[in-house]
Structure formats: structure tokens, C-alpha cells
Amino acid sequence: MKSSAWLSAMTLSAMSLVALPGGASAQQRLEAQLIPDNFAAPDGAMRLIPIPKQQQSPAASACANAGGTYSAEARLAGCATLIDSGKWKGREIAWAYANRCIVYHAQGETQKAQANCDAAIQQDPGSWLAYQMRGEIAEKLGSPDKALADYDKAIEVGARNAAIFVNRGDIFLAGGHADRALADFNKAIELNDRSVLAYIGRGGAFVARGDADSAIADFGKVIELAPDKAIAWFDRGAAFFAKGENARAAQDFTQALRLDPSNAYAAIWRFLARARVGDGDAAKAELLAGSAKISRTAWPWPAAQLFLGDKDAGETLAAAKSPGDQCEAQFYLGEERLLKNARDESLAYFRKAAEICPRNFSEYFQALNELKPPVDAAPRTGEEPPKAETAPKADETKDPVAKP
């Protein structure tokens, strides 16, 4: 499962720039912008700079979605009126191209969106919004290097919003650069300390650095800000799972499943946590009972069937079609072997998962964790506790620290 950082940042699709063709100076136009702060509130609400209504034309208001009341069609019509008039050049019209890029991107019209962002940059090489939007488009198209270049340029020319640092942090994290990701998520939180996605991203960076406690704190902050977001409960559960706090992990996975009963991953990870601390048969029964609203025709249901005993390793791997599914299949096969006390067999699956998993998948992080040699670890369910090779001497049986 793509971890929270794991989930890409909210786009700027709802954001717009207000420029004021006619009746205002270029400086006034630049100052009269919506401040792009996608994370001003957990629901993504944005803060606006009040714009004197008498300074903007109806077309400009529509293009910029002033007040957030205009439809996509009205915005496109407003932007077209301004652009097609030929009255403005450079900075004074670049904002309209950038807004049209936003609308087309939200509609999935990728080529049109990119063409308009390109036009905005041609008109104004300092249009940070156009660079930021073009970066989002490149990221969506699976070109992280191009996205990174545009995000870097946007920041260079003045972008200062939480969204861009979250977006860039996600790319760094997916590329295995946890320290650089952490720096960007820190910057996003500095810009907006109520940024849900920034805390999710930073939690993922902490997980990647092996700092489960800090990750748990950040995911807890997300739960405080947005308690109805299942992903936050899942992510905190995964961090507890990494620490071996399986009971607390199971509680969080249960809450994630309550909020999103179709979340197969929450059901599977809850099974893993329960199976480690209790009766495997009871955990299976709970997995089956909790899967009523989970799709039985799509991945990762075949992984659930593996734990239920309905599929073997070969069938599970065959059902994993995409590279991400293959990554997850390797991890879950490792966990299945581990629950059967076949640690040596499990390690081969975990190594494969660590090799092929995207660097921002929960399964990648946990596979690395499973590959660590156990040090004074409590035995897993069904394992015999380690036995001393020789009996201790009489004076070694005394507790070296006096107890009250």
C-alpha cells in the first residue's frame, strides 16, 4: 500500500490567482492573489486576500474563481475572454493561462493543462504557480524528475505554500531520500502547522528513518486534526506494528476499518497484529467477518485469501498484476511464513519485497524492519522462548538492582 507519505499531496486544482486586467497596476495585480494554502484546514480550505470588487472585470472574477463560486465552464470562458482579447501580455496575462491550466488539470485534460502552463511560463518566467502546476502534471504522468525540476523552479521564483513542499517531499521520500523529504515536510509545517498532509508526509519520513516514536506522534497529530481520515489511523497502526506494539496497532487498524469498511489493507494488517498476540484462528475469523464490504475481485483480496488459507504462494503471486501488487505479495508471503514459524523462508520474501517495493510503501518499510536480526525480542506467537546454553551460577540469579 502506498504509504501516506505515502499518499501524494492534495493538488492545487481548487486554487486560483486573481489578477486585475484593467484599472489596477501590475504591482496591484501581483499583490491581489489568492494565497495558495491547501492545508489551512483539514478539509483543504484556503485563505483568501480580499480583492476590491470594483478592480476586477467579470471575466477576471470568473477565470480566477473569485469567492470559489464559479463552475469549471465559467472559469474557462472567463479565462478565454481575457486571453483571446489580446489586451495583455507578460505577467498581466500569465495568471489567466495558469488558472486555465488548473481547470484543465482538474478535468483530466492533461495536454491542454500542460499547454496552458507552458504558455503561462512563456509569458512570465517568474510564474511560480505555472511551474508548480506543471510539476503536479508531470508527477501525475509518472515523471518525478521533471516534476522535481519544476517544483525546484517554482520555489526558486517565489512559491511559498505548504502544498509544494509536501509534493516535493513525497518525491524525495519515494526516491529513498528520507532526510531531504523530512526537510521539506518540516518546511510545509512551518508554513502551515495545521497541514494534514505535511504531518502525514513527515510521519512517513520518520518511519523511513526508523523513528517510529516520532512517526506515531505525527500520525497522532493528523488524527487530532482530522479524526475521520482512515489513512491516519492506518499509518499510526503501521508505526505501532513496526515497534512490536501489536495490540495498539490492532486498535488503530480497527478504527481505520470502521471509518472505511472497504479498506482491505486495514483488515489484513489488523489480522497480522492480532495473529501475533493471540489466537490465529480468532484472527482469521475476524478477518473474514470484517471483509464484508471489501472487493473480492481486486487486489489485495488475494492476500487476504492467503492468510485465510484459500490461496497458496503461487496463486497469490499470480494474482498480483502490477509492480506494486507484486511488492505487496512478497511482503505478505513473508508474513505468512513468519506466522508459521518459518523465519528462514520468510526472509527470502522480505528481501525480495525490500528489493522491488517502491520506497514509500508501508510494505517496504516493514520488510526492512523484518529483516533486522532480532535482538532480545519477545518470541512470536508459537515460537519457543530462547533457552540459555548453560545454567547461571548461583550469584548470577540475583537481581543486580534492588527493587523497592
Write the layout of secondary structure elements.
Elements: H1 26-31, H2 58-64, H3 72-85, H4 91-106, H5 110-123, H6 128-140, H7 144-156, H8 162-174, H9 178-191, H10 196-208, H11 212-225, H12 230-243, H13 246-259, H14 264-277, H15 280-289, H16 301-308, H17 313-319, H18 323-339, H19 343-356, H20 362-371
Helix pairs in contact: 2-3, 3-4, 4-5, 4-6, 5-6, 6-7, 7-8, 8-9, 8-10, 9-10, 10-11, 11-12, 12-13, 13-14, 14-15, 14-16, 16-17, 17-18, 18-19, 18-20, 19-20
Properties at a glance:
404 residues, mainly alpha, Serine Threonine Protein Phosphatase 5, Tetratricopeptide repeat, 20 helices, elongated, disordered C terminus
3D architecture notes:
Among the domains are: 228-294, Tetratricopeptide repeat domain (Serine Threonine Protein Phosphatase 5, Tetratricopeptide repeat), CATH 1.25.40; 297-372, Serine Threonine Protein Phosphatase 5, Tetratricopeptide repeat (Alpha Horseshoe), CATH 1.25.40. The longest helix is centred in the C-terminal third of the chain and has 17 residues, at 323-339. The chain has 20 helices and no strands. α5 packs antiparallel against α6 (128-140) and α10 runs antiparallel to α11 (212-225). It is 61% helix and 0% strand. With 404 residues, the chain is mainly α. It has helices at residues 26-31, 58-64, 72-85, 91-106, 110-123, 128-140, 144-156, 162-174, 178-191, 196-208, 212-225, 230-243, 246-259, 264-277, 280-289, 301-308, 313-319, 323-339, 343-356, 362-371. The radius of gyration is 26 Å and the shape is elongated.
